[in-house]
Each structure stands twice: as C-alpha cells, then as structure tokens.
Amino acid sequence: MSLLVVDRLTKSYREGKMAVNAVSFHLDKGECLGLVGESGCGKSTLARCLLHIETIDSGSIMLNGQPIEQLHERKLRPFRRHMQMVSQNPAAALNPKLKIKHSLLDAYEQFHHQLRLKHFTFTSKAAYIKQLLEAVELPASLADRYPHELSGGQRQRVTIARAISIEPEVIVLDEPTASLDVISQGAVLRLLTSLQTHLQLSYLFISHDLAAVHQMSQRILVMKEGRLVDQFDRDHVFHENRHLYTQELISIF
C-alpha cells in the first residue's frame, strides 16, 4: 500500500482559474517522487493542498490508508505530525523574533504527547536541539542565534531540522534550493539524500529545476497549467515518448 495517495485533486480560485486540475499520483514509503514544471503551473498550490494550508474543491488525499481531505483541524491534528514541509524561502518560514532553538522546539511541543521518536532522543531540550543541528550539519552554537544572523543556506538547514524534528513519514519539499547559491544547492541536496536514507523518509520533491529533480527522484511527474501531463521513472527521462512539454524542459536540462 502506498504511503500517500492523491486522487483527482482539484483546486480553483474565485476568479475561475483552475490551479490544480484532477491531479492523481501516489508516493511509496522511502521514495522520492519528483514534481517538475514551470513557475505558476500549480506545484506550490498542490503542496499547500496536501498539507491542508488550502482547502480543495474535490478529490481525495489518503495518508496511510486514511482519507484526510475532509478532516477538520481537531481530527486532522494527529495526521499533521506525519507530513511536514520545507519551503523555498527559509527567511519567511522562520519567526525572526525567535532564536533558532525555540523554532526547533516548536513542532515537538505541539506533538510531544503522540511522539515515539526512534532517531532523536529527548533527555533534555539542549541535547535534542544539538542532535537536530548536528543532523543537518550545523554547529550547536547556532541554537542561540536569530535567523537574520545565519546565511541563507544555514537558515534552510534549520527549516529542514525543524521538519525532521518529529520524524515525519513524508516531507513535501517545495523548491527547497530555489533561494540558494549553486554551492549551497548541491550541499542541501546531498544532505536531503542522506537524511532520507538515515531517517527512512519519503519525499515529494517539487521544483522547476529538472536537473535537481532528476538527481533526487526515483519517479518524476511533470505538471503544466494545473495538470499532470507526463510521469515516468528517472531512467526514462530521455525516452522518445516523452510529452512535448517534457521535451522542452529536457532541452534546457
């Protein structure tokens, strides 16, 4: 059974624009599923729908065999710890008024009553924070700093540490390297690959960068104007039967 199953998910806005149009896919345990498409094609809207940041018009979202698309906040809450998100703008994702250590504790404090951590221990707050920072290859000394005191790459590593802090099963990575320089991009992708193996994570990796998606993913979905127009195994990216839009993306690969 797949970990996450999305069936004909549809989302439109008041002005009539169909942002996500009958999108269906599945994500298996331990898999990285790539989603690629140009800016404005609906990728980020899809991500927000999966995490209930936005409501959907129709369709279904199944997590571990349980439908979650119609759950209200109280009943949805137990599922939230299983699916976390890393966005493209770490500066906006972190509260500028909170020290890094407080941002890292936020998810744990929300879900501690239902957590059975396998990879991180909680003998003390300081030890827990140190483990999280070490997991994303940051020194423990950063715990007492504010977000503006960190580089862009360091801030993104902190958001990754926060996402893994409660050991979710699924992480939605929405353009996680878009705001980073080339060197930082490569380092973050290598880190994500290492964490996936060590923590047994499943990723939905969303990007406009086909090269990054190809590097990270076992299977790739291609989105255009709200629809999935192509899907294939990574090894078949250059197959002659690829959709014309996929071929356009490949031409700048």
UniProtKB/TrEMBL annotation:
Specify the domain of life of the species encoding this protein.
Answer: Bacteria
Xref: InterPro entries: AAA+_ATPase, ABC_transp_ATP-bind, ABC_transporter-like_ATP-bd, ABC_transporter-like_CS, P-loop_NTPase
Keyword Cell division tagged:
no
What GO molecular functions are on record for this protein?
A: ATP binding
Q: Give the signal peptide range.
A: none
Q: Which residues form the ABC transporter domain?
A: 4-250
Q: Which PROSITE patterns match?
A: ABC_TRANSPORTER_1, ABC_TRANSPORTER_2
Keywords in alphabetical order:
ATP-binding, Nucleotide-binding, Transport
Gene3D superfamilies attached to this UniProt entry: P-loop containing nucleotide triphosphate hydrolases (3.40.50.300)
Family per UniProt? Belongs to the ABC transporter superfamily.
Q: What is this protein called?
A: ABC transporter ATP-binding protein
Q: What is the lineage of its organism?
A: Bacteria, Bacillati, Bacillota, Bacilli, Bacillales
